[in-house]
Amino acid sequence: MLTCAKANKQEVDVASLSSYMRGKHREIQEKIFYFFNSRPDLQIPTEISMKEHRELCLRQLLGLVREAKIKPFRYVVEDPAKYFAISEAVGSIDISLGIKFGVQYSLWGGSVLNLGTKKHRDKYFDGIDNLEYLGCFAMTELHHGSNVQGLQTVATFDPITDEFIIDTPNDGAIKWWIGNAAVHGKFATVFARLVLPTHDSKGVSDMGVHAFIVPIRDLKTHQPLPGIEINDCGHKIGLNGVDNGALRFRSVRIPRDNLLNRFGDVTRDGKYTSSLPTINKRFAATLGELVGGRVGLAHSSVGILKIAVIIAVRYSLLRQQFGPPKQPEVSILDYQSQQHKLMPMLASTYAFHFATQYLVEKYSEMKKTHDEQLVGDVHALSAGLKSYVTSFTAKSLSTCREACGGHGYAAVNRFGTLRNDHDIFQTFEGDNTVLLQQVAADLLKQYKDKFQGGALSVTWNYLRESMNTYLSQPNPVTARWESEDHLRDPKFQLDAFRYRTSRLLQSVAARLQKHTKTLGSFGAWNRCLNHLLTLAESHIESVILAKFIEAVQNCPDASSQAALKLLCDLYALDRIWKDIGTYRNVDYVAPNKAKAINKLTQYLSFQVRNIAGEFIDAFDLPPYVLRAPIAMQSEAYSQYTQLVGF
């Protein structure tokens, strides 16, 4: 099989494939790489304290904006694709820098643009853009992270002074893990319950969670303002270039105009006005405008995965170990076990690239049209892709380190810092398990709407046909087809993915209905939770494959298209084989077909191995981002990296 695969090695035009992958924002990414490569003083030294790393991270950000003249803020709304391309390049330099960049522009700046109105944009835009107004995004509390509606910080309106009074009512309501708060932040977007005085027996009315601009430090002295207590969250597992802090508010007064009032406002006489009729609708609209953070994390996580895969594959191509008697040692990537670790991962990296590219396109369209159905679609898709991609990348970083053996443990190759810094991607901007539940809940809503004659949103259109297919028995003839042409047919692959999703959806809906009768809705959901998470992951894999197939079909260069088709087939068949039990249990795949899938998956891995160098070259990342700064700061370490292949 190996001999056959080597004989059939495909030719790949790396330049064409790279051009197709990198797209129209390649130039600005190259500008960022050139700037940091030309500034040794902005590279992270081998040993650096938390305090020094934070200051270096700020200098890196200031250098990017004020010296390299990269001004990303306007792209947050005007051209999100360009903003995310900048963010990916910045994060590849140092993930701490990428996160600090995102806190400033996507979270703090994004909240002003997306939740505020013209008066807020006019007042704060320039200061955010040029980094005069470094800011924070103060949502998470000590006792409430994922459950945003449970936040306890209070903003009470005082009609006498025309001000809001921001209060932290108890220790559990202290704002926690707030990026930029410990050292550098001057403002914070604070999420708090808006409370209005009333003239009835209750005395107050809770209007739900709203966002407020709260100055936290004096612009001249940089000292905390009266009533604001700031503490440092200290040393973390990773991302120590980001100054996470805790904020406590003691009767802090802010002007009424500091309410970010796009979805709800308070008049001078204390009356609440909103175009949205309920607390839940206002809350959903608010969070809907903040999905850019999830989109950015999914996109950045793919960028980190690319770096790790390039390092591991390149090392595996160059590293030789063992071989036939009295013959030269062979590349460790010729071993089936190494291919099994890395080739499906390489295919997945390409798959995720195109899926997150699609997500960015849909997000950009949503920002332009504000279409309500598209908002819901992007919300669920961003939740699913952020969860799935970041979890996959976290596991892959460890796999890549292990695939490089003892040399993989050296600091020169970035695995350690990438793994530690990326780990939190699975938690912030929505815990991955919680996000998958949101995807499952949306699928169940779509499933219910389907049987009530409602329209399915764009990403879920396939359910209309595949649910009907599921409700009929698998075809005993196609279940036994095992030719290579059939198994590499995109229709077979996509049908298999979607059949699995539809089967999981129908079965979990039936289970929920059954258990709700005895356990109630909350208990039933908890009883079926693992089933629901599997459903959500299956759906996201279906979306990823669909977008990969589209990317293959749309590729204009023939050699690049053939190479991408090879990766796409490997991605699809590897996923089917890893869940072959599901397909066998319902006779969707007969035993002989299952064996054929396994055999073909191994063969495709061999073929991908033969052009793995071309595939990683097409990512076109400069050596500067593939080695830790230690490799460039020390001649001895530089020689070491060349000797071992990093």
TrEMBL record:
InterPro entries: ACOX_C_alpha1, Acyl-CoA_Oxase/DH_mid-dom, Acyl-CoA_Oxase/DH_mid-dom_sf, Acyl-CoA_oxidase, Acyl-CoA_oxidase_C, AcylCo_DH-like_C, AcylCoA_DH/oxidase_NM_dom_sf. Residues 489-633 form the Acyl-CoA oxidase C-terminal domain. It is found in: Peroxisome. PANTHER family: ACYL-COENZYME A OXIDASE (PTHR10909:SF378), ELECTRON TRANSPORT OXIDOREDUCTASE (PTHR10909). This is Acyl-coenzyme A oxidase. The keyword Transit peptide applies. The active site is at 429 (proton acceptor). Residues 288-443 form the Acyl-CoA oxidase C-alpha1 domain. Residues 136-252 form the Acyl-CoA oxidase/dehydrogenase middle domain. Belongs to the acyl-CoA oxidase family. FAD binds at residues 140, 179. Its main location: other. One of its GO terms (molecular function) is acyl-CoA oxidase activity. Keywords: FAD, Fatty acid metabolism, Flavoprotein, Lipid metabolism, Oxidoreductase, Peroxisome, Transit peptide. GO terms for cellular component: peroxisome. One of its GO terms (biological process) is fatty acid beta-oxidation using acyl-CoA oxidase. It comes from the Eukaryota. Its cofactor is FAD. The keyword Translocase does not apply.
